[in-house]
Every structure is written in structure tokens, then in C-alpha cells.
Amino acid sequence: MSVVTRFAPSPTGFLHIGGARTALFNWLFARHHGGRYLLRIEDTDRKRSTPEAVDAILDGLDWLGLGGDEAPVFQLSRIERHTEVAHKLLEIGQAYRCYCSTEELEQMREKARAEGRQPRYDGTWRDRDPSEAPAGVKPVIRIKAPQDGETTLVDAVQGSVTVPNAQLDDMIILRADGTPTYMHSVVVDDHDMGITHVIRGDDHLNNAFRQAVIYRAMGWDVPVFAHIPLIHGPDGAKLSKRHGALGVDAYRDMGYLPEAVNNYLLRLGWAHGDEEIVPRDKAIELFDLDGVGRSAARFDFAKLENLNGHYIREADNDRLAELVLARLRAEPDGLDLTAETESRIRGGMEGLKARARTIKELADNARFYAATLPLSFDEKANKLLDDDGRRVLSGLAEKLRGLNSFQEGDVEQAVRSFAEAQELKLGKAAQPLRAALTGSTTSPGIFEVLAILGKDESLRRIDAVCGTAH
To answer: Per the record, where are the segments of Basic and acidic residues compositional bias (predicted)?
Structure first.
């Protein structure tokens, strides 16, 4: 059997982080088994579905590298096919027309509650002669669910799950206005798309039993179901915005790399030993449904940041520089991003990325390379630029001014020899130098910073602190 999976979001909002994990698991399972991964946009809710949401979902999937192997299927465009199958079920005696009014349905629910039963349709029209239909009433079409015995589904994650058939009501598959219901449309689309494995959140587990009724009524093969536990917050509660229940676009804006998000989502509910760092090629090799746990995963921003820091350190410097520059260009504070300052940021990326956990942090740390005089200094840097600090900087400036080469090794030798001549520990020279050049007490290696800023800019910054001009 050739594996075919699908991700089927409803375009009523952004691509939720939980949806992204579902897409990832479907993508990986298909890739692991050499199959296909398809997309379906379930846009039959016309009031809530928007083109903007469709664009946001597809953009988020593309950013994560989880675009479908074929153009997405739009459920709304297939209404005629859904209707055709509903009428076929009617024709073969697996469905029937129901003429119950809203008032009659409410009475059924009230009676069930009074008797301690779950409210559901009682099958009033299941075996009645259509000639008894009231005039002028548009019927719905209901599927004939099994009434006796029980149904067992072997779920690839949850294991064998059984429900009494008495819990399966004759659900509506075609409304009175002729529109198909979601539960029916999903089955028809999955069958027609050749879906072999339905991998989705375990909040759909009950739906699987109701959908299986339609598959069997049509004589279709029931796909393998795999219901993965939902994601919870660190406190075990349902994931909310304060936990990280945000759109994928928000994670991009916060400065996370797509490979880090994918790796983190992979580890939310799936495991292979103690491996935390699982690149995409290895994930394809290792992923299968037997590694998915049955308990809810807990979202942890600290782990995501640590993973992101790892992937930033592994990332190509030119790629990081483009992401940083794009972020700095979008800021409203007027950084002087000239060709020269952009070159500095590109040249300094290797040292900058060693400390950063997000692209936002990386951009913040890179700002000093593009800063113009006068620099702003944080509180700790200001303390280093007292009278003693400025005296050290004056002496250092003269030493640096005499250099013919300003390569990293040359400036290091100059600073070290100055510190030795003044009988200073290296830090006593390097700390005020870092403060004067960056406005902070933390930065990449100070000799690297000097070399990247270059002789003229380094001396301009030192002279500005010392109050001297050359």
C-alpha cells in the first residue's frame, strides 16, 4: 500500500502551532514511507472562512517547509460530489430522509436528559414510509448507524478503542438546504484523495467512529486512524495564548528559525531515545507512529529557545545576516544601514550568533555595528567609562592609531602589549574598550569587534568617549 496522508485545516484563522505539528507528523510519515502528503482547505464554513486565513495558513506551511506535494484541494469546490454520495447512500438504503422539526428534536433532547441518557436523535424517521412526510417540509438526510453491538477501531497511536453502537446516532449528512455536513464531506474527500492514514489530534477520536459508519455504508476501505494527544501548557492546562498557542507567523516574528520550530514540534509528543537535536533528514529516517506517545505534550518556551540557539549557531552566516538586516530595516528608529554598516554586520555574524537564541536577539546584538555617534551606553558600560576608563582608552587609542594593519591578530597584540606596559590585567583594558565600541559590556570578542569596525570607526568611537578629536 502506498501511503497518502493529508493536513486539512479550516481557514478561519492563523495556522495554530498545534496544527503545524499535525502537518509535520503527516509530512514526516509520508516521507518516511515514500508516500505522498496532501493539503485540503476545509472552507465549507462560508461565514468564518476567509481568503486571508487561507493565505496565512499556506504561508506558514511554506515557511516550515510543509507545503503539499500537489496543489491544495478546496473542500467548498467539491460540494456536488459530497451531495452525490449522500444521495447514493439514500439510494442503497444506507441513509434516509428525516422530516423532524426543530421543536421535535428539542423534545427528544429533553426526554433523553430526563431519562439520564445522552441527548441524540431517536431514529423517528429511520423506518417510516416517506409517504407520511409532512407537506412543505424540507428534509435532512441522515446516515443509518448500526444500532446493536459495538465498533472497534485500532488506532495507530491510541491502540484498540471500542464504543457501543448505541452511542452512534443517525447523524445528518445533508442539511435541509442541500449543503453537506463537515463530517460527511471529510469522509468523501479522504476517500477520493486516496488517504490511507488520517493523522490528527485526539479531539477527533470520537469523530472517527461516526465517520467509519459512512465508509462502511459506501463499501469503502476505512483508513488507518492515528489520533495524537493535544499540546498542553507547562502547567498541564489546555494550551492558551499565554502558553504559546499562537500562529506560526508569531514564532517567525519572535525570531525562531523554521528548522528549530520543526525540531521542537517533532519532540512534542514523539521521541527516539534521548535525542533532542533531530535534523530533518534524520527525522524522515526515524519518524513513525509507534514513537508517538499517548499523553499530552507540554509546551516549553525555554526548550524551544535552546533549540533555536543551536540552529542559529549551525546556520549559514549569509542567511542569518539577511534575516537580521531585514529586521533592522523594518525598525522605525532610523539605523544607518549603509553599505559599510551592512558589511560590518555580515562580517560580524560568526561572533554574534554564538550568543543569540533568537533572530530578534541576534539583531539586537548586531545593532552596535550600525550605530552612529553618539552611542548610547547601558548602565554597566557607563560605569566603566569613568575617569580611569577614559585614561586607559586614551592610551589605547594612541597605540591603535599607530597600527598599519588592523587585522584581528594585530589589534590583539597591540592591546595586550599596551596592557603589559601599563601593568594592567587584560580585562582592565578590554572592558572599557568594549563599552566604548559597543555601548555594552557584552559583545563578541573585542579583538574581532575592533577588526570588523575597522581602524577609523574604532578610533572615532574611542575619541568620542574621551572627548578628543583627530
So the answer is: 111-131
pLDDT digits (tens, 9 = 90+) for 44-100: 887 888 899 999 999 999 999 999 999 999 999 999 999 999 999 999 999 999 999
Q: Which fold is adopted by the domain 379-466?
A: Arc Repressor Mutant, subunit A (1.10.10)
369 CB-near residues (< 8 Å, 6+ apart):
341, 344, 345, 348, 452, 453
The conformation of residue 165, written as its DSSP 8-state character, comes to G
Cβ-Cβ contacts under 8 Å for 323 (sequence gap 6 or more)? 359, 362, 363
Would you call the peptide bond into 374 cis, given omega within 30 degrees of 0 as the criterion?
A: yes
Q: DSSP per residue over 56-100, as a string?
A: HHHHHHHHHT---SSPPEEGGGGHHHHHHHHHHHHHTTSEEEE--
Among all residues, which ones are annotated catalytic? 241
DSSP assignments along 257-289, one per residue: -HHHHHHHHHHTTB-STT-----HHHHHHH--G
Longest dimension (CA), the chain: 110
In sequence order, what are the residues at sequence separation of 6 or more whose Cβ sits closer than 8 angstroms to the Cβ of residue 286?
32, 272, 278
Annotated binding-site residue numbers = 241
> Residue 376 CB: number of other CB atoms within 10 A?
11
Q: Compute mean pLDDT per 10 residues along the chain, 470 residues long, and list them.
A: 94 90 98 98 87 93 97 96 98 95 85 80 86 88 94 96 92 95 97 98 95 97 96 75 72 96 95 91 96 90 95 98 94 81 96 96 95 92 94 96 96 96 95 97 96 97 84
DSSP string over 381-415: HHHHTSHHHHHHHHHHHHHHHT-S---HHHHHHHH
- The pLDDT score that the predictor gives to residue 237 is 72
CATH topology of domain 248-369: Glutamyl-tRNA Synthetase; domain 2 (1.10.1160)
Cβ partners under 8 Å of residue 393, min gap 6 = 385, 432, 433, 436, 462, 465, 466
C-alpha cell at 455: 581602524
Q: Which fold has domain 78-183?
A: Glutamyl-tRNA Synthetase; domain 3 (3.90.800)
DSSP state of 180: B
Closest-CA residue to 324 (of 345, 340, 310): 345
- pLDDT tens digits for range 282-317: 999 999 999 999 999 888 889 999 999 999 999 999
